[in-house]
Amino acid sequence: METLMSDFLFFVEVLLSGLLTGSLYSLVALGFVLIFKASGVFNFAQGAMMLFAALSMVGIQEMLGVHWTVAFLVTVAVMVGLAWCVEKFVLGKLVNQEPIILFMATIGVTFFLDGFGQTIWGSDIRVMDIGLPDGVFDVGGVFIDQLELVAGMTAAAMVIVLAVFFNKTKIGRALRAVADDHQAAMSVGISLRYIWIVVWTVAGLVGLVAGIMWGSKLGVQFSLSLIALKALPVLMLGGFTSIPGAIVGGLIIGAGEKLAEIYLGPFVGGAIENWFAYMLAMVFLLFRPQGLFGEKIIERV
Amino acid sequence: MTQQEVKPGEVLLQVDDISLSFGAVRAISDVSFDILKGEVRAIIGPNGAGKTSMLNCINGFYHPQQGTITYKGQTRSQMKPFEAAAQGIGRTFQNVALFRGMSTLDNIMTGRNLKMKSSLFSSMIWWGSAQKEEMQHRRYVEDIINFLEIEAIRKTPVGRLPYGLQKRVELGRALAAEPELLLLDEPMAGMNVEEKEDMCRFILDVNDEFGTTICLIEHDMGVVMDISDRVMVLDYGGKIGDGVPEEVRANQKVIDAYLGGGH
Predict the structure, then answer these.
(1) pLDDT in tens, A199-255
(2) pTM of the predicted model, to two decimals?
(3) Prediction ipTM score
(4) Count of CB contacts below 8 A, A vs B?
(5) Which domain holds residue A118?
(6) Looking at residue A31, which CATH number applies to its domain?
(7) Is B70 in contact with B18 (CB distance < 8 Å)?
(8) Domain ranges of chain B
(9) Residue in chain B lying closest to A296 (CA)
């Protein structure tokens, strides 16, 4: 009885930790969804933007010796500038091109940002310290990582704000319009340029928040941009166009890989965590290619 | 130069000697014509005659290499489509360009985009007033929905609608912006007789009730001659006829172009 109870508590602990890590994946996935929803472009550079944002923030904090809130605000300005540049020098030149062309352009942006960030701020591992708690709560024998809890709550808050933004505001409607049809959007008086800057800014800010969370957890380093790859299975699960999908997908992936690591890992020699998410996504694709919440594309013929 | 108010019967849009080419292909050569305030103006011609290119020049998708376009007394340099929309030029497209993922209502609401004042930041801060504004526009959009008799599909994602209804929703979206000049690119293409009659009625009603000036491209000669005040005929990018329907019908060049006699 005693061991059964502690087994159960251990299970809950693994599950919770998985869910909370999952919410961090969701944060990254959110950035992808935003740009995809609003411009129909799969933004490969989302991971690089997250790294760049985190690097800039830590760098600015160190360089100027200011409080992290000041560094945060300056970084926000940097991300707005970045969005402006992306529109001006990359996307603005590619209006009405095929999605694959835009996708390739974002790969270019990725390599540029990875290199540029490290040129300016160096490639050392930096410590991101904005005073997030790093202890654990003990809730009736279940240990919860405080940092993960904060991350989870942040993710939840961002989802609510973004969902309202997309569905209830004029600009949200304009964003969806641009995603559906560039020409038609322009014909009703929507400026593509403005919309793109807004959406890349928002994606940059989401990247910044994700970067802060991951940076606090793992340190700010190059491998952060690889975490973005974990967002891919999250997107396949949740659907590329759904904000709630990014969250649910993240939670499933996070919990799934932790549970698999603990309970299946020993039978197949461990390190399941590295590939389980991709496997899960692949199996999922067979049954629901549009994702859990994705819009099913019905093509008239 | 600023825009002037244009009274009914005066020139709303003046196109002077415009030419447009894509590389070596000449889409429009030296065409001049005008659109009077309050009229229904048709542009007809065989496939590839440059009709859609002409509309694209007028609302800023294309920029002619030569010639000028004067709208409401203002001769424009390169104008972006959203600027054209802001000045009161609305349009629909040949191959229905709707926001497929959205409902009928949202599509038409998007047409109100320019009329909505609250910006991103003010709507974050003054949530209440943004909501109130949304309601006012919603009312206007409901009027359009009633006018076009599409109440039943208000909430349906437009991607699922039959073609004829999609065209109607697209017209609704253009109307939502309260355009002064409405460009319709083949509003009746692919429709059955009944749908065509409905669409004709809507176009004439819009012209009548709102005083909206209409410039349309259409293939169905019967329809064009019935509803248009004046007709311009393009062939191979050049203008071969212009005038009231009877004149155009009697024009030998036009007959040749349509029957293939001249080529």
Answers:
(1) 899 999 999 999 998 888 888 888 887 777 888 889 888 888 888 888 889 999 999
(2) 0.78
(3) 0.79
(4) 88
(5) 2-287
(6) 1.10.3470
(7) no
(8) 1-88+179-263, 101-178
(9) B101
